[in-house]
Design a protein that fits this description.
about 120 residues, mainly alpha, 7 helices, about 0% strand
């Protein structure tokens, strides 16, 4: 009887392997499908509107809002509003576009130096 090769004896191990790709297999919400735009957590990305909303809350609603955001509520109203504002600014920084500095005129000497590499 002919001898089986070692490949046939072990079987093909690659058939049993799975490849991961990092995507969500079955998206549950539209945010997972289209991506998060940052409005879900606070409802706005405008600082003035958010501060107006926070200042309109009473103390217990303010503490509930802090828990919803993920902060431990403290008893001092002014410190809690300051912490909420700080967290809001961090959140909006993730979703805002960065503005570039205006172009400055470059001297002829600097342009000559930069053009040497071409």
């Amino acid at each position: 009887m002919p001898r089986k090769s070692t490949k046939e004896a072990k079987g093909n191990k690659l058939d049993n392997l799975n490849q991961t790709h990092g995507k969500v297999e079955n998206p549950i919400t539209l945010e997972q499908v289209w991506g998060d735009d940052g409005l879900n957590k606070y409802g706005t990305l405008d600082t003035e509107k958010y501060l107006e909303y926070v200042n309109s809350l009473n103390k217990s609603d303010l503490q509930k809002h802090a828990v919803k955001i993920g902060l431990v509520p403290i008893d001092d109203r002014t410190n809690l509003i300051a912490r909420l504002k700080k967290e809001f600014v961090k959140h909006t920084a993730k979703y805002s576009t960065k503005t570039l500095a205006p172009k400055k005129d470059i001297s002829k000497k600097a342009k000559d130096i930069l053009s040497e590499g071409r």
